[in-house]
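Morning, I've got a small favour to ask if you have a moment. I owe you a coffee for this, so here goes:

…
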Amino acid sequence: MERIHKIVYKKIMMYYVFMIILAIDSSQKDLSLSLKVDENIITKTYQKDGKHSEIFLEVVNEILDKNSMRVSNLSGILFNKGPASFTGTRVAASSLQAIGYSLNIPVIGISSLEVMSHVYSIDSNERMFDCAKYAYGDKYFTASFEKIEKLIQIKDTELADIEVIDTSHDKYLIINRELSKYLQKKSIPLTLNHTVLPRETNSEDLISFAEKYINLCGEFNLSDTLPDYANHEI
């Protein structure tokens, strides 16, 4: 009987280890990290104004240490692969590639525009819409989505000129707060139907997206970890 109890306990512990997921969003000015242990999610935000390379590995170790975890306990990693800041996505991708490769666990990059579309679609019945976020200068990133039974991206991510944003879209448009502020600053009006997301996306949104659309199991695959720069100039 004691041996059976030990076997059952071991299987339960293996299940819990599998459910330890680290999610990181370094695509915004603030660095967001979430650790999911079973059904519990712990999130920490660091306000570093985009200077994530200075603290990236330090804060990963910090969130693990504070929850009595080690990197070797992780069963999978999620990160915002962009399009976004070149430095932020590059630091995240290269650091997490090393961790995933050494542990042979899946490291999955999720598009920042996919995350935006997911956050919007949770409470919306809109079937087809575009998502747009500020890039740099007078540029913005955009992609088209459709939601029937599930959310799919129906048009590749593009880099476009902000000056033509109001004439370049024939679908409902979802924009992030940073782009909205930039449009107001430049006095560029939007006459097309649009919604401004009430907040920027974060690492918890990556977990929410993955729970619905990603089977986070298997081994490390380099192609899953590549950043998305959307062909913008580096």
User: Anything to note?
Assistant: The longest helix spans residues 86-103. The chain has two domains: 2-111+201-225, 113-196. The longest strand covers residues 151-161.
